[in-house]
Amino acid sequence: xxxxxxxxxxxxxxxxxxxxxxxxxxxxxxxxxxxxxxxxxxxxxxxxxxxxxxxxxxxxxxxxxxxxxxxxxxxxxxxxxxxxxxxxxxxxxxxxxxxxxxxxxxxxxxxxxx
Amino acid sequence: xxxxxxxxxxxxxxxxxxxxxxxxxxxxxxxxxxxxxxxxxxxxxxxxxxxxxxxxxxxxxxxxxxxxxxxxxxxxxxxxxxxxxxxxxxxxxxxxxxxxxxxxxxxxxxxxx
Lengths: 114, 113
Hints:
heterodimer, A: mainly beta, six-stranded mixed β-sheet, four-stranded antiparallel β-sheet, 0% helix, B: mainly beta, seven-stranded mixed β-sheet
């Protein structure tokens, strides 16, 4: 069974600075998809970024980028130029090639301080 | 209107009561899911369904049941609610043709007293 681990329960960052969230996963599959989701206080689950395992290039979405290390089974999220609106819970998630279900990590709470 | 609608948004119920959480979607997706969120544990899968005639247990299905009434509707029932089922519940849909993009409802916060 796949597992996803987020080792940082909480992180804080000053506005305009950079913060990196860690995620590791365990799988025997070679092809799969990885995701970062944001959950603001509104509790809506918002997709931040997605990475396909067969792509070596790291995904980027505006101020959000990932560092995907397939051999190490690591998938970290970097938030650049942090904004107050980035304050939220962030979840790392995994699905296999068949996309049958998402497996989530425990989440990291990010607080952006003015 | 939201693509995935969950009702109710919040609910308080008493121990031993039967309760149903409802989910409907306008995405046209075949795949639907119920997840439970607890602090520090992330979201865990309760049940999932790939079409109207397909129901599968997730990792924490004990104490829950589901019904897929139509492609667009997937409800979750707690037959006899207990306090440790207090949690935030999410319904989601997915589409394999779009790299498994998942769409989530806005969640139902359930409190069992």
